[in-house]
Amino acid sequence: MIYLDYQATTPLAPEAAEAMRPWIEDKFANPHSPSRWGSEAAAAVEVARGQVEAAIGLKGGSIAFTGSATEALNWALKGTAEKSSRSRIVTVQTEHAAVLDTCEWLKNRGADVTYLPVGADGLADLEQLRAALDERVLLVAAMLVNNEIGVIQPAAEIAQAAHDAGALMLCDAVQGLGRVPIPQGPDLIAVSAHKIHGPKGIGALWMRDGLEPAPLIHGGGQERGLRSGTLSPALCAGFGTAAKLASERRDADADHAERLWQAAWAALGPGWTLNGSAEQRYRGNLNIRRAGLDASRLLGELRSLAFSLGSACASGSGRPSHVLRALGLSDREARSSIRIGFGRYTEEEELVTALRLIAEAARAQDNLAA
Ligand code: PLP
């Protein structure tokens, strides 16, 4: 199989697997128990915490580990809404379901939610954002790098606009961490290990000091009483090591993605159109469409390749992607789009092989239709 679905998840880095091993095998103590073994596990968790915080790279805040970025985003939105006397949330139509569905949940409980449109390039319009902001807005939620189309939102400017209105800014940096710098400005940042070559089942919420949301999960008081539940030293160690590697290799990984991007376009040949901005974009995400293509059929025909039709969640639903629809694409164009994601462990040769197979299968569909 040739794996080209890096936005859905990334292969575990061997270094992260190695860092996890002792905590899965014989060092099984509870990191919250006072024994010497427990303290050793707790120390490993703290090393990992420092590594994830260093990769985020912002001062004046700290993280709490969560079970996923989905949990972190739920927590940020619900926990901030609970603490605030304000009742409006502003977000963007192209956010991940973890933000959009949580906003809908809050809306059913009385919040007023504005979903900002994006342009054909996938970028939010700052003027429209400013026009939507007033003293009733508690939080603006916007992602850094879009998981479906790879476009990079102006997160620093969005945070500034939110602050000017006295609101907080929540940034979903799941696809951005280790790939593009996280700008100064956000007050809450959600990240996930499995998108940066770490293990699945762990994420984190970075919180500016004093702006911690009310807890979502109650119990043993772990994570400074903010997020109860026994931490997994293995998952933390894997996340920490992956975060450290992502920081160390950011330039090398970006150069590699750029080379792959160029090779991909050369291999595809004519007839393909890029979805979303070509400039404000992470180059390890190639979301493209072709007139008349039946993308789900293509996916079914090429079972030796792993690529997708959009987000992993949208691929299963049969519904056209809400992100592509927000760019102004018709249902038909959205259903003619595929997402190819590549990165650190993708070899140029396998990418070119895969894209030639995709281009050939797409041309065969053209011929059938002719
Ligand atoms: N936000 C974005 C942009 C994502 O791509 C994902 C994963 O698909 C998530 C949030 C949710 O992350 P997790 O899988 O850790 O719940």
Word description of this protein:
The protein is α/β, with parallel strands linked by helices and about 375 residues long. The protein folds into 2 domains: about 1-10 and about 250-370, Aspartate Aminotransferase, domain 1 (Alpha-Beta Complex); about 15-250, Type I PLP-dependent aspartate aminotransferase-like (Major domain) (Aspartate Aminotransferase, domain 2). It has 13 helices and 12 strands. It has helices spanning about 15-25, 35-55, 70-85, 95-105, 125-130, 155-165, 235-250, 250-270, 295-300, 310-315, 320-325, 330-335, 350-370; strands at about 1-5, 60-65, 90, 110-115, 135-145, 170, 190, 205-210, 275, 285-290, 305, 335-340. Strands 2-8-7-6-5-3-4 form a 7-stranded mixed sheet, sandwiched between helices. Helix 6 (about 155-165) links the parallel strand 5 (about 135-145) and strand 6. Helix 2 runs parallel beside helix 7. The radius of gyration is 21 Å and the shape is globular. The model has no long low-confidence stretch (mean pLDDT about 95). Pyridoxal-5'-phosphate binds near residues 147 and 175.
